[in-house]
Amino acid sequence: MSDLPLRFQSVDALRAQVATWRRAGERIVLVPTMGALHAGHLALVAHARAMGQRVVVSIFVNPTQFGPNEDFSRYPRDTEADLALLAGAGADAAWLPSVETMYPAGFSTRIEPGPAAEGLCGTFRPGHFSGVATVVTKLLNQVGPDVALFGEKDFQQLQVIRSVVRDLDMPVTIEGVPTLREADGLALSSRNRYLAPAERAIAPRLHAVLSGIAERLATGAKAAPLMAEGVASLEAAGFGPVQYLEVRDADTLAPVAQVEREARVIAAAYLGGTRLIDNVAVLPG
Ligand code: PAF
């Protein structure tokens, strides 16, 4: 196994290390995570290694992006296992701030993202994207990377972060990385471990339904009837409630009635007590 990544728990020590790398002319890539790492995160690290000389992975389960009835307290945490995985993947540093470091007494600033945060998960998780935008802004300011990578599975999150970085003139390039999937199509997610075996068997239907819709949209079909059919198929498979199933423009996230340029079919649905999200690209034929 490769060496464990350097661990940082203070902003000053982290910045000193990044400054040393930067003086040596090295390009710094940040992979922000909440830990509970899986192959999808390791694919982000592999991507990061191809983009720069130094890879910093942050692990922080951010309380401000969870609603009061969400899974903050039970979100899986195993830093040592995460660090071992990061060593194997070749990350250089792990940024492991505490809640007190991120939100010291008196912390009172929130970033309120614009229209990209409206609708979809923004409707069902009030305050979620403000929490994400605030913590990601802090992580980018703390690390000061040249590039930061985010998975496309959280497609709305990716667009929210792009809009915040653009609007606030933050000197960093945001890159989306395609979703890694199990052989049966289920998108990798730290929350998949909540699924009971019977639910795990049903879960790939989400990707199958989205892919079927994407194929038909690509040939010019209208979105509305496909959405109704898709919700019915998901419910018949055992999902419920289906919070949303929509077609959105891939750049602006505006609703799309018929696909003329790149779009995404995007959904969130409960399977038992687990909320799954996924999205599939639609490229008009
Ligand atoms: O996608 C995640 O893991 C989180 O939302 C992020 C971007 C690390 C912010 O806490």
Automatic annotation (TrEMBL):
Its main location: cytoplasm. InterPro entries: Cyt_trans-like, Pantoate_ligase, Pantoate_ligase_C, Rossmann-like_a/b/a_fold. Keywords: ATP-binding, Cytoplasm, Ligase, Nucleotide-binding, Pantothenate biosynthesis. SUPFAM superfamilies: Nucleotidylyl transferase. (R)-pantoate binds at residues 65, 157. ATP binds at residues 34-41, 151-154, 180, 188-191. Its EC number is 6.3.2.1. Gene3D superfamilies: HUPs, Pantoate-beta-alanine ligase, C-terminal domain. It holds the Pfam family Pantoate_ligase. It is found in: Cytoplasm. The keyword Cytoplasm applies. It is an enzyme of class 6 (ligase). Beta-alanine binds at residue 65. It comes from the Bacteria. Homodimer. PANTHER family: CYTIDYLATE KINASE/PANTOATE-BETA-ALANINE LIGASE (PTHR21299), PANTOATE--BETA-ALANINE LIGASE (PTHR21299:SF1). Catalyzes the condensation of pantoate with beta-alanine in an ATP-dependent reaction via a pantoyl-adenylate intermediate. Belongs to the pantothenate synthetase family. This is Pantothenate synthetase. The lineage of its organism: Bacteria, Pseudomonadati, Pseudomonadota, Alphaproteobacteria, Hyphomicrobiales. The gene is panC.
